């Protein structure tokens, strides 16, 4: 079974769990007038897990990501400081809740130092605010190049048994100031010799390569992968 099939099974499981919880909430509301806080929190957690998992997977649908050496643009950062006089009466908890809601699910990119390939920029999505005081967030990578970069579906549902020893990613903590703009693929700029990342193989990991030829009419380019010197036609 491929990782993509596993991902689909996880999504179906979350959707089934969410349906069961929503039905239970509806019954409690009909019988008691209000559902328990535990059920409502579980519904919220399942919805968030599904939303984030779908966001990561939708960004993972691109077949080629161009590696651009130009200086990336910083992402818009969030601040707990308010510019509105109406917000002066907000409590710290209300301000924190507003910031968390604003930044969760944001597409971005970050630079990560890899022992093999050095400093690389990776597209990511913000999972959550890690610390308001330290101005840090937890991000998941959209085009994972290593197994420990691939998001752990069980972690998104708070059901991973392995914790810090899990071979998959539970997210990376990044300073908000280090968030960069998401690198959208621009297939019109594909040229021979260009360095790219491509999803290759059954593990759903992205591999480094260089373009050997481009067929714009057929929307296909031939990529030579760096680490195993193989040629493969990649649709775009």
UniProtKB/TrEMBL annotation:
GO terms for cellular component: nucleus
Zinc finger (C3H1-type): 146-173
Bias-annotated ranges (Acidic residues): 83-93
Chain positions covered by the region annotation Disordered: 74-93
Xref: Pfam families: zf-CCCH_4
Alphabetized Gene3D superfamilies for the sequence: 2.30.30.1190
InterPro entries: Znf-CCCH_4, Znf_CCCH
Key words of the record: Metal-binding, Nucleus, Zinc, Zinc-finger
CDD domains attached to this UniProt entry: Tudor_ZGPAT
GO molecular function, one term: zinc ion binding
Recorded superkingdom: Eukaryota
Domain C3H1-type: 146-173
Subcellular location: Nucleus
This protein's name: C3H1-type domain-containing protein
Organism: Adineta steineri
């Amino acid at each position: 079974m491929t990782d993509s099939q596993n991902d689909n099974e996880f999504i179906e499981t979350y959707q089934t769990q969410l349906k069961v919880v929503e039905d239970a909430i509806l019954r409690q509301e009909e019988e008691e007038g209000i559902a328990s806080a535990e059920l409502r929190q579980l519904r919220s957690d399942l919805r968030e897990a599904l939303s984030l998992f779908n966001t990561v997977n939708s960004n993972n649908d691109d077949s080629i990501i161009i590696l651009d050496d130009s200086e990336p643009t910083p992402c818009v950062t969030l601040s707990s400081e308010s510019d509105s006089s109406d917000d002066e009466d907000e409590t710290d908890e209300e301000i924190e809740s507003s910031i968390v809601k604003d930044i969760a699910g944001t597409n971005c990119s970050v630079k990560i130092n890899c022992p093999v390939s050095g400093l690389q920029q990776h597209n990511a999505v913000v999972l959550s605010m890690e610390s308001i005081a330290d101005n840090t967030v937890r991000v998941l990578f959209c085009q994972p190049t290593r197994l420990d970069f691939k998001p752990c579906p069980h972690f998104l549902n708070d059901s991973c048994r392995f914790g810090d020893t899990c071979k998959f990613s539970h997210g990376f903590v990044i300073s908000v100031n280090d968030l960069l703009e998401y690198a959208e693929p621009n297939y019109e700029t594909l040229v021979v010799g260009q360095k790219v990342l491509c999803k290759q193989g059954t593990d759903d990991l992205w591999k480094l390569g260089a373009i050997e030829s481009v067929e714009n009419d057929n929307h296909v380019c031939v990529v030579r992968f760096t680490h195993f010197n193989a040629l493969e036609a990649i649709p775009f």
